[in-house]
Every structure is written in C-alpha cells, then in structure tokens.
Amino acid sequence: MKKLINDPRAVVAESLEGFGMAHHDLVKVHADPAYVTRRDAPVSGKVSLVSGGGSGHEPLHSGYVGRGMLDAAVPGAVFTSPTPDQILPAITNTDSGAGVLLIVKNYTGDILNFETAAELAQAEGIDVKSVVVNDDVAVEDSLYTAGRRGVGGTVLVERIAGAAAERGDSLDAVTSLAERVNAGVRSMGVALSACTVPHAGEPSFDLAENEIELGVGIHGEPGRRRMPMAPADAITDQLLEPILSDLGAGSGERVLLFVNGMGGTPLSELYIVYRHAAKLLADRGLHVERSLVGNYITALEMQGASITVLKLDDEMIDLWDSPVHTAALRWGV
Amino acid sequence: MKKLINDPRAVVAESLEGFGMAHHDLVKVHADPAYVTRRDAPVSGKVSLVSGGGSGHEPLHSGYVGRGMLDAAVPGAVFTSPTPDQILPAITNTDSGAGVLLIVKNYTGDILNFETAAELAQAEGIDVKSVVVNDDVAVEDSLYTAGRRGVGGTVLVERIAGAAAERGDSLDAVTSLAERVNAGVRSMGVALSACTVPHAGEPSFDLAENEIELGVGIHGEPGRRRMPMAPADAITDQLLEPILSDLGAGSGERVLLFVNGMGGTPLSELYIVYRHAAKLLADRGLHVERSLVGNYITALEMQGASITVLKLDDEMIDLWDSPVHTAALRWGV
C-alpha cells in the first residue's frame, strides 16, 4: 500500500499543518495537544460546538470547523479516539460563556474521553452538554461500540446544530435540536475494498476479489455480512431497505438524501448510487428535499459508499440552507 | 476491480442521470446526445462557456456547470472525446447571442471534435472562439496529445473565465483572459496506482508494489519516468521543481496553489502535499494568495495527486473570489 506520506507517525500532525496553511483564513490549528478552532473563536454569546474522533475520516471533523458548523474539532491518531487533554482546551478556548455542546460519535473510546473532558471543563465552571450520534443501522454492537455506531448522520447533526448555534439558540435548544436530528437519521455503508492504517502498513481486513462487506464501519470493522459483488442498484437496495424500515418514514415525508464516498470511490459511482436511491425513495412516496453527494466521512482510501437518510421538517430545512463556511462545506457566504 | 456500477456501458448515462437528480436546481441533463447545461441557459447577454472531454475525471466538467463557471459541459464516454453532435447542441442551446467560448483540454480527439462542432455552429451564425488548455509540464507530446496535455489548469481557466463572462465581459475579453490564465498556469501529477476503465475491466497500466509514475496523465498515460516510492515531501519536490522552472515565477509574485487528488487518495494526504508545496513556494519568495485542495480533476479511482501553480494578478484574484455556484465549487452564494 503506497501512501503520499512521510513518517507514518507524523501523518496527522503534518496533514493538520497543511490544512491550517491552506485554510488560515478560517481556522487555527493548535499543536501539542492537537485541535482545530475557528479563527474567530470564542464567538461572543454563541454556544460552541465541539466534535472530534479518530483521524482518517477527513474532511470529518476539521473540515467542518467554521461559521455555521463547528467551533472546534479534535483529531485523534488515525482511527483512535482523541485524549481528554486534547478535548479540554478545545472546549475551554471556544466557550464564550454560552456553553459548549459536544457532538460525539458512538464509539466506546470517544464516549469515555469526551466524558472525562466534559467533567474537567464543568469543574472549571463551563456549561457542557453532549449528544451521542448513533445512526448506523448495520449492527447493534460492534468492535468498538456498545449500541449503534455513529457515521454519516454526524455530518448532518454538525451542520444543523451548528446553524442553530450560529443564529443564537441557547445550549438547551441546540442540544435538543441535535438530539432531534440524531433521532431522525439512519445510515448504512458498504466496502468494496479495505483500507490501510499508515502505521499498521497492512490492510485492516481482507476482502476477496469478488466480495463486499455490507454494513461496514468507517474503520473497516465488520458489518452485517459479506456477499458477492453485485450491481450498484442491488447494493443500493440492500443499504436503503434497512435504513427505511428502521427509520419508519412514511409516504409524503420530506427527507435529505446523503450519498457518501468512503474515500477511494469515484464521484461518478456515487451519483449512480444516488440515482437509484432517489428513485427508491420516490417509489415510497418520500420527497427528497435536499441532498449531499461526495466524500464527507471517509475511511482513508477505502472503496465503498454509505447512504444516510434524514427526516426533515421546516426548521431543519431553514437551518440546512443557512450560510455555512467551512473548508469542506460552504454555501451562502 | 470492483466498481459501484451496473452495466459498464451505462456508467456515464446513469451517473449523469443521478447528477441531474441531485442538482436539479442548478443544471439540466440532456440525453441523446448527452450534455449538461445551466438550468437558466441561455443567460441573456452573457458569453457562454462550454467545455467537455472524456468522462472519468469527475467533478470535471459537469460539476462546474452553473453561475460563474460553465454554461455547458459535454461528457464523452470514459476517457473518450465527446462527439461533435454532442458538442453542437451544447453550443447552440447556451448561446444568448453574445457568443460562445470553448474551453478544450489539449488532446487530439478533443481538439478535432470541438473544432468540427465550432465550424457547424459558426455556419449557423454563432460567434465561437476556442482556448486550448495545455498546462502539464511533464511531457511535450504523449499518447493522445501533440504538445502538452491539459490537466488541472483547466479548472482554474473555467473558474476565472467563467467569472469574467458572468460579469458581462465580451467574447474577445473572456477569450483573452482565458488565454492569459492558461499562459500563467503549470501542472504536474503522480500516480501511485493505476485506474480501470469500466468497459475495459483491467487496469490501464501496471505499477509495481513499490513504484510510482511521475508526470502521469489523467488517463494513466505515461509521464516522465517511473521511480521507486518515496516520501511525500520528496515527491512534492519532484512535481513542483519542473512546474516552477517552466513557469519562471520570481520572488514576490503571487500565486494560487492547487493540490488535486486523482480520485483514490485521501484528503489527509493531499494536505501533506500542500504543506510541503506551500513551504517550497514560500522559500522561493512566492506568495500563496489563494489555494484549492481536493479532488477536482480525477482519473477514476487512481491513487495519486497533481500540483498546479497559477500566477495571479489583481483581476484574477477578484474574479476567483467572485460568487460561484456549481455542484463542485461554490462560494459567495
């Protein structure tokens, strides 16, 4: 496995440094401990949103730091939770006094370390709340998770809760909105190939020449089952069916359809998945009001995709459409 | 090679259909012959910009159709030039009477087919001009090219000329600006892996386990030479040196630095390349005024990257910053 890296142990630090150089108008990259904040943090009177997790899922989370989304992102080592000593300054240095909401993907290490940091920040008098994202319908428990994993829905929680914080909502209001988004979002993914953690140097799992992993996690952890390679439409059926039956969306409801690339899949293939998924949703009488197609939460260079469906209401649509200015998501500004 | 596709012969049509569904607010996708236009085309009084080429380089060109960039994109089969009967309606249906500029990457088939379409459109009384983009410093002639190939610089020509057309510049003015951008831009790429054309089913070339192709083309065609895998910084040196010596940019000049992924490379690795490239430019006394990092002109799922450097002046910076609203590039709106 060839990678455009120098020292495998320096991947996260060097990548963050480059990210900070390319987007110095937007973000400030802190080293030792590593975290990324909005250049203008703390924003007076605004609830701060802090997220983070293992690296290797870029643009998540650093790519979502900026107006209308996150105030800080905390990147761990590749596929490894960030530590409390990284998370704590991300909280304290973005809090304006209005409180901080932590957006945590449901992985055991993340839960533990964000919780520890939250307690330390609370001890300093900061009002901290948390929302745990657990949108992956593939498996109930997994290698790194008790309960469902947090995947693509995280991007949507960060955007919509981020928009609410930007318009001045209180910590309680932003938290309850984030929980509402999480309650109405479901995802499932598929891997066509494995991915290789730089310092490991070997693929994290093996797939045969004609095999795919249905319900794969964003670290390559096992999903529901392996199956022979199939046409894109058949795979899309198998991803969308569990999402819809779990979500329980009924005819006439409005949804956001998010087709996400795992990192190594061409955009053209994501649109082939989108095409069939949108048709299936229309067949069920659902209205696709908003959509997102691209590499937004990845697993290094894994080939594959995930589908995320979010039930929308008027408020969520307004917040989705409001201005956002981050490295990876931008409109209206 | 597993791909998220159905019928290999239907890849372009199905992908375009999905693209049109996801971005119906922005574009209109035409079938038989296939081309993509701005939803609001023709835009009264505005010079129309039309580009195109083989598919497989997404988001190029369809992802750049919209306000402040292209009026139409014409996708050929994968890695195959579009035909004159596709290009002609893209011209005639976007011309508002102000004339049409064709932005053509320098590949023999593209040149020929855009030229034929231009002559047919001129016979219908439409004012048509062309600019040929040839920014790749890697090789002088190549498998599909007499002279230098057109690569990453194409994105920058489309954006800056598109902004000039949007502000109401004449066909002559937009054409001369596009030529000025092309004259001041240079690129070079590297492949860490090959890519597989869907209907071919086999990789278009072979690279050994520890080998990379320096100066690779966006169809996987040969570059300058093969070399053993090296650290990202050393590869970046080898890409940037030929660009800078050919461009002849001197200390104090302002540039745009564009680090592009070939499709299968994680964003985190592109920022590692950006980091070193930006440092090298600073060492030469160049000012990186604007930057772009991501998958903007790809070669299917190829792993690799390209670097593009454009000399900037005040007018180009203003045009670059002006509002753009396409599927793949958006700001200010």
UniProtKB/TrEMBL annotation, chains A, B:
The residue ranges of the DhaK domain are 7-331
One short Pfam family name for this protein?
Dak1
InterPro entries, alphabetically?
Answer: DhaK_1 (IPR012736), DhaK_dom (IPR004006), Dihydroxyacetone_Kinase (IPR050861)
Any GO MF annotation of the entry: phosphoenolpyruvate-glycerone phosphotransferase activity
Entry's EC annotation:
2.7.1.121
| Catalytic class of the enzyme | transferase
**Keyword annotations of the record:** Kinase, Transferase
Q: Which domain of life is it from?
A: Bacteria
Q: Protein name, please?
A: Dihydroxyacetone kinase subunit DhaK
